[in-house]
Inverse folding.
């Protein structure tokens, strides 16, 4: 019986690893090709570890395109998106979870109802708003819409609901006001949720494409997610260069993911239903 | 002890907490939603504003129904949803069920499956385009290597371009669904399986009679959200095919983008965005109404 179970376990593991490896294969191919000379990229049989390693694609990528500018812009906008997400969504999520006020259920229901409204219905008026305020081609246009994020509010509310009322009541008996209670008692307890939200909003910020594509027209103002597509249009047949550009764009986000993947996956799992 | 009556002070404090997000909600959600409805009835001049714009009633909506690109986009959106969503749901449930068994290296496997989900979509699309290049790409090289003389043309062929986009989308999103399914599966009490084992049910029977019904709320949630998301496919198309070849991968969002920000037909594009929104609402309502047939809440 145990032998049969072990064989079953091994077969399952092999199947799952085969599929898993095929999931990451494109990324491995990208890194491998980025280190090759163009003529070697599609040569058969394929060399996963190039015999001759070159850094010329990376050099060309950072000299032909304002790559460091794109990095800077992406870091800057992502940073502010994370800050905005953490502060505003915690405040709001806490209010919906623990504070009593008129219209709480109604406003929360409104927020939830907007979750299914596609951003494409709002993008044209948003564009006109930013145009009216002279914010087209500035990073404000890319960051400010993140002030409202129904999904993140929902996430934080779900977390704050799990904090026992008694802890908050105890702080109030000690004479601390709502803001102080929130800041000194609740926020430290919310560390796991805050870490999850940091990582999620980092990903949203780093990967956002539609907004920057529309709001930013100057190449030097652009972010990586949009900038990287210039490689494909300008050097459509230089695949080694395209792969070097893609690798550079993916390194930070994949590094964050590999370091913090536990929080990543917990954050995502937290978002799945039960309301 | 607190009384049941909410005091003014409580109201003021709470509203101070939600004030920033509420302002964001008004400015970036409520106003744009209604403003785009207003724009859809106008021949809006982006440069002159209200002064240079004209009320045209339902004209843009009529135009949309006669526009070949709009029709092609809608049809492709439905095709994409039909091709991609069932595949995504079935595959991710299958993987989640296997991952939930007693296996080696669950952590590292989960990391692998989830990785495409965090990858920047445009970079991933650039890589996918190269990997599936019809002439030189490693996929077709491999297929020729195992004796398939005429491998698919992928994004270069009218027949395969849309399935290629669907495949890319499934690859990108499967990790997310696996994680959500795993959370759902872990919520199923072991007593059900123990009882079934005593009754002599095998693994396959247990899957169909226990796992499937009990995980159905998660399946429902993922189906609804992913149909909505599949309708919003844009970056994939903009990077990999630009809607081509011909209109083979043209989507509604691509049409909105093209009309609004390339041709500056803001009024018409707003009308299309509302039609797009209404289609999503109708599909979602139909699913809500149909859920009692297969979703079991315990």
């Amino acid at each position: 019986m145990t032998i049969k179970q072990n064989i079953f376990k091994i077969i399952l593991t092999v199947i799952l690893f085969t599929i898993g490896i095929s999931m990451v294969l494109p990324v491995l191919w990208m890194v491998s090709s980025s280190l090759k000379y163009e003529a070697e990229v599609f040569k058969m049989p394929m060399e996963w570890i190039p015999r001759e390693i070159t850094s010329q694609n990376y050099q060309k990528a950072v000299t032909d395109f304002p790559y460091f500018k794109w990095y800077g812009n992406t870091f800057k906008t992502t940073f502010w998106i994370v800050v905005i997400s953490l502060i505003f969504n915690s405040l709001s999520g806490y209010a919906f979870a623990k504070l009593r006020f008129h219209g709480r259920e109604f406003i929360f229901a409104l927020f939830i109802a907007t979750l299914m409204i596609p951003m494409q219905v709002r993008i044209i008026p948003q564009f006109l708003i930013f145009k009216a305020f002279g914010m087209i081609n500035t990073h404000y246009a890319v960051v400010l819409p993140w002030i409202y994020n129904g999904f993140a509010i929902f996430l934080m509310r779900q977390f704050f609901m799990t904090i026992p009322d008694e802890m908050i009541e105890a702080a109030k008996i000690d004479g601390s006001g709502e803001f102080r209670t929130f800041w000194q008692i609740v926020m430290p307890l919310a560390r796991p949720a805050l870490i999850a939200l940091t990582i999620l909003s980092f990903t949203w910020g780093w990967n956002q494409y539609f907004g920057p594509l529309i709001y930013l027209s100057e190449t030097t103002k652009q972010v990586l997610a949009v900038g990287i597509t210039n490689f494909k249009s300008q050097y459509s047949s230089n695949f080694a260069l395209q792969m070097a550009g893609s690798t550079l764009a993916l390194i930070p986000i994949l590094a964050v993911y590999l370091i913090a993947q536990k929080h990543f996956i917990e954050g995502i799992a937290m978002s799945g239903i039960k309301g | 002890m607190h009384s049941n009556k909410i005091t003014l002070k409580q109201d003021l404090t709470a509203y101070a907490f939600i004030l920033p997000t509420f302002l964001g909600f008004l400015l970036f959600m409520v106003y744009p939603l209604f403003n785009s409805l207003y724009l859809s009835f106008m021949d809006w001049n982006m440069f002159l504003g209200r002064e240079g714009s004209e009320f045209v009633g339902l004209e843009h909506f009529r135009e949309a129904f006669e526009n070949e690109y709009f029709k092609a986009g809608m049809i492709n959106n439905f095709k994409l949803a039909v091709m991609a969503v069932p595949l995504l749901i079935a595959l991710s449930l299958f993987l989640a069920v296997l991952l939930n068994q007693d296996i080696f290296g669950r952590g590292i496997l989960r990391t692998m499956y989830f990785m495409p989900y965090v990858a920047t979509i445009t970079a991933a699309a650039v890589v996918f385009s190269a990997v599936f290049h019809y002439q030189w790409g490693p996929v077709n090289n491999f297929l020729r290597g195992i004796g398939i003389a005429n491998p698919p043309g992928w994004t270069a062929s009218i027949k395969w371009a849309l399935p290629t986009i669907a495949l890319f989308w499934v690859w990108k999103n499967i990790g997310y669904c696996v994680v959500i399914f795993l959370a759902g599966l872990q919520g199923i009490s072991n007593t059900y399986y123990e009882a079934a084992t005593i009754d002599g049910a095998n693994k396959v029977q247990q899957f169909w009679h226990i796992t499937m019904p009990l995980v159905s709320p998660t399946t429902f949630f993922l189906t609804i959200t992913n149909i909505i998301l599949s309708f919003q496919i844009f970056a994939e198309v903009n990077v990999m095919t630009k809607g081509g070849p011909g209109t083979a991968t043209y989507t509604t969002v691509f049409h909105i983008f093209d009309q609004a920000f390339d041709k500056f037909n803001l009024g018409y594009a707003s009308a299309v965005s509302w039609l797009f929104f209404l289609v999503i609402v109708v599909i979602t309502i139909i699913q809500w109404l149909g859920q009692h047939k297969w979703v079991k809440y315990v």
The mean pLDDT of chain A is 90.
